[in-house]
Amino acid sequence: MRGLLLSLFLVTALYGTARAAEARIVARFVPEAGQIADAAILGPDHVALLYPGEGRIADYSLEGRLMQHIIREGGEELEFLPTACTEGPDLSIWVFDEASHRVFQIAPDGNFTRSINLAYEFADGRVLALSRVGDLDVGQDGLLWVLLPDRGTITAFDKDGNMVDQVFLQKLLPWPDAIYARTANLENGSMFVLDYHQGAVLYRHGRERDFHRLILDPPEGVDSVPGVQDFAVDEAGNVLLATYGNGGELYFLEPRGEDYASRRVELQMPEGEHRLACRYSNGRFIVWLRDSQLVYVLEVSR
């Protein structure tokens, strides 16, 4: 097992007299048609939705009003393929553009303020500018943590795009068929990653070496645990899990010692199977349907 310690922390129900945290829906709207690749909070209260197929970012208010389309311009419209994003400094966002192989910082007003190449350094000293990433996330010390599924790593870059740290998932975890699809990195060094192949979130606290597996208890009357489609984590370690159960279900998990307490988040969704996606950004959770146009914004309250 290569030193792996898989602690199967079963998620418990919410009990006791202490008031539990709750993920509350504060916005729900129908955006424009197209495949949303990722999302983030832009400025204090706008939702930025990435549409790589359309070559733009759609900027929405929480009331569902389209404020603007963000595209690349340099005297003329430039090719733009935004595929991943995360929060940046001063309520901006970082966006990876597969067309230019660069990460752009986009200000709350929609202007592109700077760009960087992510310089991946190999063991033999060769340096390569990344052309594709699986996910972006800002973690400890403001580093940009980048999930690289084809290399089986989560790699950290500084603000100038220099590689400064790397976690080799292929060495730490024993699953050769793993498909890593999302990462979350907290200020205290905690790290989470989704293995899409087995539908499970793996995590380690602080600077632990060993990863644990986060799983839900099987719902009543169901023999198997619902697989995870996507997840998001806030600064307090609260986890939002999007699962395949009953056509697509959302669960809010609150840390309780070494375990998590959970409750289902009721979403008003159309009938049928749904592929859910989620992202935490600038104090809010964003949830959207991959196969139809529907976006939710949630806040945590007690």
Give a brief description.
1% of the residues lie in helices and 50% in strands. By secondary structure, it is mainly beta.
Account of the protein in words:
There is one protein chain. The longest helix is centred in the middle third of the chain and has 4 residues, at 169-172. The chain has one helix spanning 169-172, and strands at 8-10, 12-13, 22-29, 38-42, 46-51, 56-61, 66-70, 72-73, 77-78, 82-87, 93-97, 102-106, 112-116, 119-121, 127-129, 135-138, 144-148, 153-157, 163-168, 180-185, 191-195, 200-204, 212-215, 228-233, 239-243, 249-256, 259-265, 276-281, 284-289, 295-301. The chain starts with 7 loop residues before the first strand and ends with a strand. The strands form eight sheets. It has a five-stranded mixed beta sheet, with no helix packed on it. A five-stranded mixed beta sheet has the order 2-27-26-25-24, with no helix packed on it. The protein is globular. The chain contains one helix and 30 strands. Mean pLDDT is 88; it is low at 1-17. A hairpin with a 5-residue loop joins β18 and β19 (163-168). The chain is an all-beta fold.
Features:
302 residues; mainly beta; five-stranded mixed β-sheet; 1% helix; disordered N terminus
Biggest sheet descriptor: 5 strands, mixed
User: How many distinct helices?
Assistant: 1
Radius of gyration (CA) equals 19 Å
Structural class: mainly beta
Low-confidence stretches: 1-17
The fraction of residues in strands falls at over 45%
* Mean pLDDT reading: 88
Strand order of the largest sheet: 1-23-22-21-20
Shape descriptor? globular
Intertermini distance: 40 Å
Let me know the number of strands.
30
Overall helicity: under 10%
